Amino acid sequence: MIEWINSGGPVMWIILACALIVLAVFMERFFHLHRAQIKIDDFLYGITTNIKNGNDLEAVTICDQTPGPAAYIVHTALLHRNDSRDDLIMAVRQAGIREIPRLERHLNLLITLAQILPMLGLLGTVLGLLQILAALTAGTPLAEIGDLSSGLWTALITTAAGLGTGIPAYAGYHFLVGRVESIALDMEQTAEEIIYFLTHPSSNGVQHHEP
Questions:
Q1: Residues 6+ positions from 119 with CB-CB distance below 8 Å
Q2: pLDDT digits over 120-139, tens only?
Q3: Measuring CA to CA, how many Å separate 166 from each of 13, 14, 159?
Q4: Spatial distance between the Cα atoms of 81 and 194, rounded to a whole number of angstroms
Q5: Rounded distance between C-alpha atoms, residue 20 and residue 118, angstroms
Q6: Which of 30, 61, 67, 198 is 20 to 30 A away from residue 11, measured at CA?
Q7: What share of the chain is helix, strand, coil (3-state, %, to 5)?
Q8: pLDDT tens sequence across 162-198
């Protein structure tokens, strides 16, 4: 394996470094988003039940102990529950806006590397072909296959490495974007339902309602 990497030249090491960064970013985002996505219905049921029973402090404690932006939105709503409806809606929306960049953190880096990796493979291919051309020129008219194999290895290995790491990185980016969009929908649902519940104290439970 080390011989193959060395055959790819400096570009191959750059590709491997980028691939390690991609892996680290993907794993960090994957576990972060996995932890941030909770069962919204169960969470809201626990919050609203405590509030209806007069256990406001317990509801806030549940929010503090629950990870993810949905819990942060509910926590914000509870802190502003005595404000006017418009102020409550504004506070909840601002809380949601603040959470989105945290969900999308490092995703730009991931998509950038996913786009760069195949181009690095192409760069390695070009350098390998130039190496072959240089060997042909230096050995004319008696260039041997051994003089050409080094450049050929560089061209083929870097191309394969660039594509082999760029494609999974691109797929991983879109997978994470899908998770972010799913959490964003949960946040929107949570915001609507907690606002409705707090502004309609006579309601029997959480209902879907546009704020």
A1: 162
A2: 999 988 888 887 777 767 65
A3: 15, 13, 10
A4: 10
A5: 15
A6: 30
A7: 85, 0, 15
A8: 999 999 999 999 999 999 999 999 999 999 999 998 8
